[in-house]
Amino acid sequence: QVQLVESGGGLVQAGGSLRLSCAASGRTFSTYAMAWFRQAPGKEREFVAAIGRSTITTYSSTYYAAPVKGRFTTSADNAKNTIYLQMNSLKPEDTAVYYCARRGGTLDWSSNPSWYTYWGQGTQVTVSS
């Protein structure tokens, strides 16, 4: 089992920044794919960003959904078993509950939530205009 715990959400004004963290514990894999999703009230869960990473080869790849590309950056700290989502130039439409998700044993990420095995509890991000 893998446990994911997100933190870092909050209230910020438009144009501001936040950094979300997602700490993994339990059975961690040397190769994994992790992703960030978000869900606004009344809307479906939306893919935000993904990272595929190997702690053995240090290979890492990232991908971003169009609405956040150039504003959001995801990264990983393997020593801390933690990934981050740095969110800059936030907009009111970024308001949502943000979730991290993980699938071990592969570098392949997906924008489909069903690809991921483990999920965090979510953290609220609210961007005021």
What key attributes describe this structure?
11 strands, globular, 4-stranded antiparallel beta sheet, mainly beta, 129 residues, 55% strand, single chain, 7-stranded mixed beta sheet, 0% helix
Count the beta strands: 11
N- to C-terminal separation?
40 Å
What is the share of helical residues? under 10%
Q: Kindly report the average pLDDT value.
A: 92
What percent strand?
Answer: over 45%
Radius of gyration: 14 Å
Which of globular, elongated, flat, extended, rod-shaped describes the shape?
globular
- Compressed to H and E, one letter per element, the order equals EEEEEEEEEEE
Count of helical stretches? 0
Low-pLDDT runs of 5+ residues are none
Classification by helices and strands:
mainly beta
Q: Which sheet architecture does the biggest sheet show? A: 7 strands, mixed
What does this structure look like?
The protein is mainly β and 129 residues long. It is 0% helix and 55% strand. It contains no helices and eleven strands. Strands 2, 4, 5, 6, 9, 10 and 11 form a seven-stranded mixed beta sheet that branches. A four-stranded antiparallel beta sheet has the order 1-3-8-7, with no helix packed on it. The radius of gyration is 14 Å and the shape is globular.
